[in-house]
Design goal:
Layout: E1 2-8, H1 10-13, H2 21-30, E2 35-42, H3 46-59, E3 62-66, H4 77-84, E4 89-91, H5 93-105, E5 121-123, E6 127-129, E7 138-142, E8 148-152, H6 156-175, E9 181-189, H7 194-201, E10 213-218, E11 221-231, H8 233-251, E12 255-258, H9 263-274, E13 278-282, H10 288-294, E14 303-308, H11 312-319, H12 323-328, H13 334-348, E15 352-358, E16 373-380, E17 383-390, H14 395-414
Parallel strand pairs: 1-2, 1-3, 3-8, 13-14, 13-15
Antiparallel strand pairs: 4-5, 6-7, 7-8, 9-11, 9-12, 10-11, 15-16, 16-17
Helix pairs in contact: 2-6, 3-4, 9-14
Length: 415
């Protein structure tokens, strides 16, 4: 089965919103043997939507659209495609009732706005794709020649949920068992540069288990992605498993997970296994480490809290940092990072205390301590280890890299 994807929205064309929907669709469909042969993006104008869908139907007869199904005046996907198919729109009372229930359940005042009724307009003869993740239902519309368009919402969370719940089962049933698939697996590393990683991998840098290898550097580290193409599902899975095993064996301690694993989740699991709780003291990262940890569901059984000690007075008053060390070594120094980690651990009564202090920029650097300088300290039940790093990038990049490095410092201490 060959399919075209059309993502809809002025915000995509203007660059204000990154199109993650098309990428997700391509990955998920390739994994079950369905090929995306063309991707396009159009604005919110009805004529542009209709023209793009018409051309795609003429080429492949199978189209998935995302976006333009909301309740506002710029949501024109449904009427534009219905007109293209020569279908009228009518109000589906069961959808109206569902929208009213959802409106009340969310505690919204007053009756359901009339604009929301637009989401309950369904083209004649269409199949409704149930949206369990939001308000806009999806639509499957097919003509007498077997050509079809599946319309999904543009909100990524809703689109992904509906793809899994509703659309993928339909497509797999129509396509039949997958003969050949495109599947990938990712080994996630941190604490090692891309060039160093290539050296460590040696001959595996060109691929493992007969599969090509891609290096994907980012804020969190370097991902190693293996991809199996034009294989049966069983052969692809076997080759990927073998390749991942080879990569993990070669890269060793720099690997913290696979695919979508989050290092914060890895750290929380390690702490949970050992019955350890964490307190954090942050200066340059401004709470980013605490946010990473508490973004993981269930983190309350590990994380006690933290202190954003941005000003030196806070470092002294709340964490017990020595005024002498602040004056002689400076706020960005090993002694201060050590005292921040010890101070938060002692005051919160946790087994682990983490202290981060640095210069995130763009100003504030000196020849001795340039922008990007970060000291991180980990106090594990009274035993302290520190790291000193000079990160590159803008302010956001430096802060994100520093938070990831702090998590990795904990991971390594616990493994």
């Amino acid at each position: 089965m060959n399919i075209e994807i059309i993502t809809i929205g002025d915000e995509l064309l203007l660059g204000f919103t990154i199109d993650t929907n098309a990428a997700h669709l391509a990955r998920e469909l390739a994994a079950v043997g369905i090929q995306i042969v063309r991707r396009a993006t159009v604005g919110d104008a009805a004529e542009g939507i209709a023209a793009a869908v018409r051309d795609a139907l003429d080429r492949t007869g199978a189209v998935i659209t995302t976006g333009g199904l909301g309740p506002t005046s710029d949501d024109l996907t449904k009427p534009a495609i219905a007109e293209l198919f020569g279908r009228s729109l009518s109000l589906d009372q069961s959808i109206v009732a569902g929208l009213e229930r959802l409106w009340k359940a969310r505690g919204r005042p007053g009756p359901l706005p009339a604009t929301n009724l637009q989401q309950a307009l369904i083209p004649q003869g269409a199949r409704v794709l149930v949206n369990r993740h939001g308000t806009a239902p999806g639509i499957w519309l097919e003509d007498e020649r077997g050509r079809w368009v599946a319309m999904l919402p543009g909100v990524p969370r809703e689109m992904r949920g509906m793809l899994a719940d509703e659309l993928l089962p339909i497509l797999q049933e129509r396509a039949g068992p997958a003969g050949h698939v495109v599947r990938s697996r990712t080994v996630r590393t941190t604490g090692i540069a891309e060039s160093q990683l290539a050296v460590q991998l040696g001959e595996l840098a060109r691929g493992a288990a007969g599969l090509p290898l891609a290096f994907l550097p980012g804020f969190d580290g370097v991902d190693l992605r293996l991809t199996a193409r034009d294989m049966s599902p069983a052969d692809a899975d076997a080759a990927l498993a073998s390749g991942v095993e080879q990569l993990r064996a070669r890269v060793g301690r720099f690997v913290y997970g696979e695919d979508t694993d989050d290092l914060a989740d890895v750290v929380l699991r390690l702490c949970r296994e050992r019955g350890l709780r964490i307190g954090v003291a942050e200066s340059c990262t401004g709470g980013m480490l605490g946010a990473r940890l508490t973004a993981i569901p269930g983190s309350s059984d590990v994380v006690d809290g933290g202190v954003i000690a941005y000003d030196n007075r806070v470092k002294q008053a709340l964490l017990g940092v020595s005024e002498t060390d602040l004056r002689e070594s400076g706020a960005v120094s090993e002694p201060v990072a050590r005292q921040m980690a010890a101070g938060v651990r002692e005051r919160l009564g946790t087994a682990i205390g983490v202290g981060i202090t640095g210069i995130a920029g763009p100003g504030g650097g000196t020849p001795e301590k340039p922008v990007g300088t970060v000291w991180t300290a980990l106090d594990l039940e009274g035993s302290t280890r520190t790291t000193h790093t000079i990160w590159f990038g803008d302010r956001d990049e430096i802060r994100r890299r520093a938070a990831q490095a702090a998590l990795d410092l904990i991971r390594r201490a616990l493994t």
